[in-house]
Amino acid sequence: MWRSRVFAFCWRFPWLLLVCSLLLAGVARAQSAPPVLSVGIVPQQAASELARAWIPLLQEVGRRARVQLVFRTAADIPAFEDRVMKGEFQLAYMNPYHYTVFSKTPGYQAFLKEKDRKLVGIIVVPKGSPVQSLEQLQGKRVAFPAPAAFAASILPRAEFSRSQIEIDARYVSSHDSVYKGVANGLFDAGGGIQRTLEGMEPQVSSQLRVLSRTPAYTPHALAIHPGVSAEVAERLRQAFIGLDGDEAGRALLEPLNFKGLVAATDSEWDSVRALRLRQPVGSSAVKK
């Protein structure tokens, strides 16, 4: 109705007709264009590796959900924390501790998690290292991705503290940097998680040995910004969950070592909240 009235008005002034047509065409395109949503991925690995694994998956999920998903990450984990803190991403894949922090402010809500996975921190040492226990790392250089990396840093450091083992902790920005640093002899040991270790190139992972494992917790959250509508969130949820239901979707999950994604609720991270962690996040939290 409103369009016919606009054209009727414009017809009285022919010079306005072209302007009106262009304006209405622009409105129509805007109404039909799918929403564009940024997806922030915690940089556990090099950005090129994350892009290779995530971009094809996000493109397919976007197609199924009738949205456009744009891959985003950051130079390192503290920089990622800064961006999540500012609410820069509409969706964010974050570790369990991150979720307990950012569900408060700016209010991200978990709506998916990895299927059949518990998050376990690991400490790796060079394959030929004589070290056979955490106690033997007393005073040694141990690499971690970042202070607030949950399973790869917070949990292993808690194990050292409980055993009263003093280490020389070094923060090297990503899981990949930990594994490469330990393999190359720059560090005596390093923290990580099984999934990222399995995703490392064999020439690095074959040089490492898992020394210890931490207790298991709910895995990373795929969380959504409160500004995303419930209708779009539900379309996305169903598209992500549906990936493991067909061969094409399973092929896209394989580079991430995911069996699939399942619906998640906020309370599933209460066991992490119960740890009462107070680790600062962001660039300012990194020890220089």
TrEMBL record:
Entry keywords, A to Z: Signal
Signal peptide span: 1-30
One of the Pfam families matching this protein, by short name: Phosphonate-bd
Protein name, entry field: Phosphate ABC transporter substrate-binding protein
Source species: Malikia granosa
Native organism taxonomy: Bacteria, Pseudomonadati, Pseudomonadota, Betaproteobacteria, Burkholderiales
